[in-house]
Amino acid sequence: MKKALFLALTATVGLSLAACGEYSQIPNYKQGNYQGKSDTRPWEGEKFAGNKQAWENALRARNQGQTEYNRIK
Amino acid sequence: MARMKFLCDTERCIECNGCVTACKNENETPWGVNRRRVVTVNDGVPGEKSVSVACMHCSDAPCMAVCPTDCFYKTEEGVVLHNKDACIGCGYCFFACPFGAPQFPNGPAAFGVRGKMDKCTFCAGGPEENNSKAEFEKYGRNRLAEGKLPLCAEMCSTKALLAGDAPVISDIYRERVMRRGKAGEAWGWNTAYGKPEQAQERTQERAREQHREGAK
Questions:
Q1: Can you tell me the ipTM of this complex?
Q2: What is residue B202's predicted lDDT score, i.e. its pLDDT?
Q3: pLDDT one digit per residue (tens) for chain A, 73 residues
């Protein structure tokens, strides 16, 4: 009798507490940040020695070299 | 300086694989790693189209979003680079990338033995000293620091592959389209650089056009 009562009580407690531990299933994404070492900028190398303008001019010339219409203008 | 982008003109690409060879040679990538490859749609059928694919250096790069070690970073010029020292070779970036850009030296091996991820760096090296031996060995040549553009684009025989400032290469492409009177699609441009809302607008516009044509 005592055993049956104990079992019934345990089942009742178990059932009444069911779903109490439920929490939101939608994960909260966090924006990560780069963790590694910093990179030097392209114009900070040996060739341009920090002269950003010269670097931009060099790239601009290379960019324009990609259009063959410049040659026939 | 604006953002560095790639643009492949599918009307011009002749599938010569010059870009693939140029990239492999310039960066001395290991066996099995191809940072760039040429994909042909409807191969052998008249009207086939080829496109040269590598990392598109996306404006909102999915690889950066999924990396568990946050080893990716974006330079001021819009080039997406990564730090190999922090890479654990998990392969998440490979699954996230819409262009299949991330490559692994040990191929499709089990987790942890794929090796450090390798991808196109827009010939901009990585987070080591510019043009140093360490940088070359890990990431390949740093042509950008030499005032040069990626070799794949500069070597392209038909100039199908363009690289450089987005507004400049867009102008070059626009001029071509005006002269030849035929566009073709600037492949991957919208996926890599467009916004999701823009893509939705385009789909709706296309549906409206089809509807209009159907009504005629």
A1: 0.79
A2: 65
A3: 788 888 889 888 888 777 777 777 787 777 788 888 888 899 998 889 999 999 999 999 999 999 988 887 6
For residue A57, being part of any structural domain is answered with: yes
**Overall domain count for chain A:** 1
Give the domain ranges of chain B: 4-215
* B85 to A44: CB separation less than 8 angstroms, yes or no: no
Asked if B132 and A44 touch (Cβ cutoff 8 Å), the reply is no
Across the interface, whether the CB atoms of A58 and B85 are under 8 A apart is answered no
pLDDT number for residue B121: 96
CATH fit for domain B4-215, picks 3.40.50.300, 3.30.450.40, 3.40.718.10, 3.30.70.20: 3.30.70.20
Strand partners, B99: none
- The DSSP secondary-structure symbol of A58 reads H
CB of B162 within 8 A of CB of A66?
A: yes
Is residue B116 within 8 Å of residue B67, measured between CB atoms? no
Q: What is the pLDDT of residue A45?
A: 83
User: Of B70, B149, B164, which is closest to A35 when you measure between CB atoms?
Assistant: B70
Q: Which of A30, A31, A39, A71 should be substituted to probe chain B, the one whose Cβ sees the most B Cβ atoms within 10 Å?
A: A39
> Which amino acid appears at position B151 of this protein?
L
Q: Which of residues 4-63 of A touch B (CB under 8 A)?
A: 32-48, 54-56, 58-60, 62-63
Q: Which residues does chain B have with pLDDT short of 50?
A: none
Instruction: Show the domain range for A62.
Output: 41-73
Tokens representing residue B159 in the block = 């100039």
The pLDDT of residue B117: 95
